[in-house]
Amino acid sequence: MRYARLCLMLAVVLLGPSNAYAANEIEELKIQVQQILKRIEQLELAEKARAEALPQAAVERVKGKEPEMVRSAPEEPVGRAKRVTTAENSGNPSISVIGNFTGQRIRGSGGVNSSSFLPLSEAEFIFGANIDPHARLDVTVTGAEGGMAVEEGFITANLPWGLNLRAGRKFLPIGRVNEMHPHALIYADRPNGLVNLFGPEIFIGDGVLLDRPFFVGDSVQTVTAGFFGTQNDVAFDPTGTSQYAGIARWSGLWDVNDDTTFELGANYVQGRNGIAAGHSMTRIGGGHFALKYQNIGQAGFTLEGEWLRRWQQQGIGVETAVNDGSYLLATAALNRNWQIFSRFDYSQQYDPATLGGLKEIALSAGLAWKISEFQGVTLQYKHTRNALAEVAADLGITAGGRANALYLRWVVAIGPHGAHPY
After folding, report:
1. Do 60 and 117 fall within a single domain?
2. Contact in structure between 162 and 293 (CB atoms under 8 Å)
3. Considering the domain boundaries, does residue 169 fall inside one?
4. If both were cysteines, with which of 6, 131, 252, 314 could 318 make a disulfide (CB 3.0 to 4.6 Å apart)?
5. 113-150 per-position pLDDT tens digit
6. Structural Rg of the chain based on CA atoms
7. Which positions ≥6 away from 384 have C-beta within 8 Å?
8. Same domain, 325 and 365
9. DSSP 360
10. Is residue 289 within 8 Å of 259, Cβ to Cβ?
């Protein structure tokens, strides 16, 4: 640009009015000045192109030092069509299938002798996705014994002030075990104490749950409240007429150190039952705890347990039935793949005719092999003594009898699935 200004000044001088030059000489100078201006313009364009090419050349030099795998990645920018496709797929549900193959061999009082070898006891089809930034939908469909049903199906809404709302069909948060899917448990059966209180199936309710977690020092505390339909025919309504019950729960989790946590909680449930024509009620209360230690090498141990008591009114003038159900579980992780465990189950049915009541105990021991994140095998032995009515029916023996049970479970999963509850 500097040379262009000089040439223009020269041209003005030369082309200005003057008698010192002949007309032909002036014309020749004009041609030369035009050629110089054109050449200067070409040089300026070339210099501009070189300046724009410098960043790209630096990138190419860096690429020459990158591994081949990096350079082979597609360099074309993401177009609008690709961005739109990604946005549309972000709301599609993740789908997973979990197969629970559980075989058992039972020997019990009265000559009971039954066995099965790894049948598909339950298959779970899990669908879940965020509806929008404010809500999520989760549905679990189970197939067992030739039939299919919606085991869980609920919406989770994130409300203001840190509140979480869950509406629909869900495992009720009573104790620790009831709100977990069977494949997430280290053992293959259901604790006898819960079987005596709620039956062999998980205690499920259709309703609304509202919870609010908050921090106190180094701990997190969660308060939950809600109501649900009392469809459980053991604890509430054997007639099948659905009533409603309320639930309240508190749980706290503390960090003992970098490798150890301690959990403590309590819950209470109350609602009408269909046992009598009057306003008979069922109340359930209890607590749970869990102490967990795990180091960076995945070795560690857990000690957990829960105790629940059920008060079940039988009608006006009839004694209230009181039952206890509890368990204590200890596990030891040898490494990230192998675990051993032992569980003690205790149940009691209070009898007004005696000072105490009927007491049932069971002892389990087992070995769990976590092959990978997607499959695991459990081998478990359980001895039950003085079985109460619900456990006796589940094992196929007479009430008050004994049974030895051997379980072999193989759980496999395909597709994405979320982390199990802590």
Report:
1. no
2. no
3. no
4. 314
5. 999 988 999 999 999 998 888 999 999 999 887 789 99
6. 37
7. 192, 345, 360, 361, 362, 391, 395, 402, 403, 404, 405
8. yes
9. E
10. no
